[in-house]
Amino acid sequence: MQRESYSTVTQFCDDTSFRNWASTGRDEAGWATWLDANPDKAQLARQARMLILAIGRESPDMQAGEADEALAQTWSRIRQQEGGRVVRFAVWWRAAAAVLILGVGLVWYFSHKYPGRQRAAGLPGPAVSGANGVMALHNASRVARLINLEDGSTIILQPGSRLSYPVKFAADRREVHLSGEAFFEISKNRRRPFLVYTHDIVTEVVGTSFRIKAPDDQPEVEVFVKTGQVHVRQIKAGNTADKVVLLPNQSVSFLKSQHVFEKPETKDIPKRAIEYLNFDFTDAHVETIFAAIESAYGVTIEYPKDAFRDCYLSTSLADEPLLSKLKIVCESISSGTQFRMEGDRVIIESTGCN
Questions:
Q1: Are 254 and 199 within one domain?
Q2: What residue intervals traverse the membrane (predicted)?
Q3: Could you tell me if residue 327 is inside a domain?
Q4: Could you read off the pLDDT of 226-285 as tens digits, one per residue?
């Protein structure tokens, strides 16, 4: 089919070259030039690109028609949510809200359709605990593992990676050791900095989200910051001038053999799903919010759907670990709403919204 005949969002989503451009910015097929020459298609293309980014990553194996199925299922969910509700938005705001809900719905759809690619999983059993009170974990599975620390921080440990940490952190600092790759969301506590030791470097934060990639068989260690500020330095270096400060969307590489840092001006770093997802919600149904959390962390959230039928929230969950996200949502629903975790299940108990 010729691009000029595209008349729906799903036709753009079904186009492999468009998905490549939308998710990576590489314009090998000349989409920017084509849109300049076809301004009547700009709005459809913009909406399609928003949905692809909301999915969290490009899905190169998505077959023609799968996007149509996802859209149909999501719109059905939206219609069920809005049944009987008095909508008070202006027309343009209703459209924007629908795009947000639809985007998260697609995240939900693809994370369930391709579970091995994006979802993390809760540890099925207890971690190995040493006599000195240190937990040692090895993710020998093929999927990422979700770890909740005693301070409320969250770690997503990638396959083949190892992590060790104390059962209870010290009063003045929180220290963990990593070999492999993990994504960290650290609870804020200025009096207790969080330190991650990987090979010959230490990454120090107060409260932020970042990813470290430090495989034993690779020549470098990479640190990428999503939110907040991160300090990276060599463990043996006594000179504080050697410290590298990273801000959001910045990265640094540590070359093991040369013991030097490289901080590129720009670098196209492949991101995990949780690093793409947007956790800012405006008048969103709680089902939409729970779907985003499920997609990001690989958990299953059980809640009283009938009691939450008319629950809509406006909140920002960005830069918050999993447990903090759940706490904020539950407190926003009502003072009597509580949650507990059982493995990779989140169980919410409530009598309804305020």
A1: yes
A2: 91-110
A3: yes
A4: 888 899 998 875 555 578 999 888 889 998 888 888 876 555 555 555 666 778 888 899
What would the two tokens of residue 62 be?
């998505």
Domain span at residue 55 reads: 3-117
Residues 236 and 320 in one domain: no
Same-domain status, 205 and 308:
no
Name the pLDDT band for 149 (thresholds 50, 70, 90).
Answer: very high
The CA distances from residue 284 to 238, 313, 330, in Å, are: 50, 5, 14
Over residues 202-223, the pLDDT tens digits come to: 999 977 888 899 888 888 999 9
- Asked if pLDDT for residue 141 goes beyond 90, the answer is no
Which residue type occupies 160?
G
Residue type, 247: L
The first and second tokens of residue 78, run together, are 């939206």
**CA separation, residue 18 to residues 9, 58, 60, 303, 338 (Å):** 11, 10, 11, 37, 43
Residue 273 is assigned to a structural domain of this protein: no
Write the CATH number for 181: 2.60.120.1440
What CA–CA distances, in Å, run from 14 to 4, 40, 63?
Answer: 14, 19, 7
Q: Is the pTM of this model over 0.90?
A: no
Rounded CA-CA distance 127/327 in Å is 25
Check if the beta carbon of residue 168 is closer than 8 Å to that of residue 177.
Answer: no
Q: Which of 59, 82, 117 represents a domain boundary (last residue)?
A: 117
Q: What's the rounded Cα separation, in Å, for the pair 249 and 46?
A: 23
